[in-house]
Amino acid sequence: MTETTPAPMAESQQLAARYTAAQVLARQRRRELVRGLCKKAVCIAMVCVTLIPFYISFIYSIKYKNEITVSHLAWPQHPTLSNYVRVITENEQFLVGIKNSVLTTIPTILLLMVICSMASWVLARNETPFYNFLYTLLTMGTLIPFQCIMLPLYLNMFNAGLVSTNIGFVIARSGLQVSISILVITSFVKTVPREMEEAAVIDGCGKLQTFWRIVFPLLKPINATQLVLNTVYVWNDYNTAVVLLRDKASRTLPLAQIVYFNENTSELNLAFAFFIMAMLPILILYFCLQKYVVSGVMSGAVKG
How far apart are CA 252 and CA 97, in angstroms? Predict the structure, then answer.
């Protein structure tokens, strides 16, 4: 009798241990489930908060003027696209703003992509004190507020006869974006292996051939990232535009929207239709290149 009693006790202890382990596992699963639900709830709340301005802009743009004061944020009973048509046909500043925004944004983006890519490659491949000092000097522009250079910028452009011109705006906006572009692209270039460039040199390629045939194609992710970011900065730029573009014929879209903040303040439906159409090209560009934006930022953050 004394020899057989420990077996049931051992079995009961094993069952108790299994039961305890099952309870602990169930608690962990419940905690993970609650944690996952909380994360999803927070993400959904953040998405809703982010989409509220877009929702307000869109419903105001498809309402009649009298319906805005009656229904406020409710969905319109009679949605209309006539506001968009009126902005295009009646507001000449919209077409002028579109033309000037395109004529200033595209050259600025191309200049930054070519010049900053070449400069970043040279700075990343030469780690001598001179090039390190040059890199520090170029990137220090990110620390200077625009208000500090606003007056000198206007005076220099005025003396050069470039005020209220697309060329002047392109030059100014390109210079303002050089620092951040070089900072980001140089960090990415450091992740590109040197062996491919050395192989190109052995095959007889010069500096320019090595850059355009080997290095530049490898910069596609970061260049796509800079394409989106610089387009957003230049397309939506208001501070530089309000300083340099003084004439109505030279206004870009951010300045052309001023017309709805004075005698036409009551035309909120037209104003929001204007805002939606001004924002649409940027949204389309971002959604087309968003995968490159993420990959470019993450790759550039690996080594810097």
Answer: 4
The whole-number mean pLDDT for each consecutive block of 10 residues of the chain, a chain of 304 residues, reads: 54 66 78 88 90 89 84 83 90 90 94 93 90 91 89 93 93 92 90 85 85 89 88 91 90 86 72 90 85 62 44
208: burial class by Cβ within 10 Å (0-12, 13-18, 19+)? exposed
3-class DSSP string for 145-201: CHHHHHHHHHHHHHHCCCCCCHHHHHHHHHHHHHHHHHHHHHHHHCCCCCHHHHHHH
Contact 149, 141 (CB under 8 A): no
Residue 16 Cα distances to 5, 9, 11, 13, 24, angstroms: 17, 10, 9, 5, 12
Question: Who contacts 223 (Cβ-Cβ below 8 Å, separation ≥6)?
Answer: 113, 117, 185, 296
Q: Report yes or no on whether pTM surpasses 0.85.
A: no
